[in-house]
Amino acid sequence: MTPYLEPTMAAGRDLFLRNPQGPLVMLNLLRFRETADYAAFPELAPRAPITGAEAFDRYIAHTLPFLTESGGELLFLGKGGPFLIGPEAERWDCAMLVRQSSLQSFMAFNENPAYLAGLGHRSAALEDSRLLPLTEQPLPADGQAEA
Predict the structure, then answer these.
(1) Is the dihedral of CA 39, 43, 44, 47 positive or negative?
(2) Quick check: 1 pLDDT over 90?
(3) For 119-128, what is the mean pLDDT?
(4) Quick check: pTM over 0.85?
């Protein structure tokens, strides 16, 4: 199975073409490595091996100040488990919801060199991931929902 750890050029282009207006909420589904792999980021590697979950904790600690500075916020970080509805063989260790004020703010955050300096913790932590940008949809008015 192919892991998904970074957006493709096509996916990034499609997001820009969609041009969502207003706040975005990013739904992250995360599967951690048993042992974090810092081979590509030796400058960030701890002295002793750590788990993928511990490496992701380091990523969150590094990222939160830059996220807040850019107008974003971590809405939810939760431990995963077996699906109630979904494939029995599929597992996600963690789900995360991150709100950003706009697509432009999200892109500025993702291009911040100081933020990027710690991105290796995320790469070391993850075996696989999914990232779904969401925009708010108004709820139907009471009794107005169409069948």
Answers:
(1) positive
(2) no
(3) 98
(4) yes
Residue 36 lies in a domain: yes
- Structure tokens, 121: 């913790």
Q: What is the number of structural domains in the chain?
A: 1
* 35-59 pLDDT per residue, tens: 999 999 999 999 999 999 999 999 9
Domain containing residue 65 = 22-82+91-135
Could you tell me if residue 75 is inside a domain? yes
Tokens read off for 143: 């009794």
Compute the distance between CA of residue 32 and CA of residue 51 in angstroms, rounded to an integer. 8
Whether 130 is covered by a domain: the verdict is: yes
Structural domain includes residue 6: no
Question: Residue 70 sits in a domain of what CATH number?
Answer: 3.30.70.100
What are the φ/ψ torsions at residue 107 (nearest 5 degrees)?
A: -65, -40
What would the 3-class secondary structure string for 86-120 be? CCCCCCCCEEEEEEECCHHHHHHHHCCHHHHCCCH
